[in-house]
Fold this protein.
Amino acid sequence: MAAYTGDDNCEMCDDVPELSDSDDEQWQSMEEGSENKTVLCLLCDRTLTSVSEMVQHCKADHGVDIPELVQKHRLDDYGYIKMINYIRTTKCSAESLLLCSNGPLPWDSDAYMKPALPDDPLLQIDVEELSEAAAVTLSPAASDEVPLLLQRARQAEDRAQRAEEALARAMDDLHKLKLLAQGLVLNADTSRGPSRPGAIAELREDEDEAYFSSYGHYSIHEEMLKDKVRTESYRDFMYRNMDVFKDKVVLDVGCGTGILSMFAAKAGARKVIAVDQSEIIYQAIDIVRSNKLEDTITLIKGRIEEIDLPVEKVDIIISEWMGYFLLFESMLDSVLYARDRYLAEDGLVFPDCCNISLAAVGDTKKHGDRIAFWDDVYGFKMTCMKKAVIPEAVVEVLKPETVISEPAVIK
């Protein structure tokens, strides 16, 4: 790629065409040139100065209203082109055109897609423009052009308004369809109840949006699903304890793609209720249906603290709530809330959130590389960068001997 050097005598400057001051002027000039082309009448040898004049001449002198023919036979752009070429090729009479019935049309052949007249201006105008041309009354006086231009502008504005209204109706229909699909497929009442306490429910609006938006993207779910140690641990536990899940009602809090819900269904659960607030729930719907588990798994979009489940109590709660630094995802309070409200008296929670072990690990080198590094960067202080670095979680697999303190139990 060549770069401009500022030299007025550069060779490239000679090859660059001079640009017009206004693209609108260029288009206007092209349109005016097209309008000024002479047009040969379809039904006689008379030459007219514009498409508009030719259309009015055919109507006044031959009794043939071309736009009316287009409307009568419901011609699209291709049908209109075929009709024009047919008339010019066969030199048919006005009477034969007017006698054409609504049956098979004489020009209904691809052979008439070939222009009968080179650069025919009638073929350079679409059906809508043809109707506008018919409404125009030409006059040599310049003052008469103003009403014509205003009329065209109003017609263009009307078309734009109709298009906007159609788009608005389509968007409204799409929204209604989305709600209908959610009601039919989810098969659950997703109406929100009064706001209830909980870590997720107490997030500020901007934090709330960022949190759930992050889980609406496929990449984070791909990362979690590819964590074979974690995912297979859930799967193996459920498959090896089918007697625990058989004929039970299971609640999956923060279901994501629905992988745990499907494990539970395959393990024999009678009903699985999967809840997630992020947009990934819509992919989960497709996933569940693709695996023919929609009769067992019910998916609900919303926060567990703000929705009403279609059952009073559940037998088991499952959740992949453990995040970076164990509690990073703020899901624990939501699981505890679900336990207190929905879990049956003898119900179970997996994994057990009543006994959580948290081990502290220190890494002086890692601290120096990621945190202390910003205290002196080539002789400059960049400590403000710590604000962005510290909240980021670093996930690594550690060897058992790295643990330097006794686990503390959180209840």
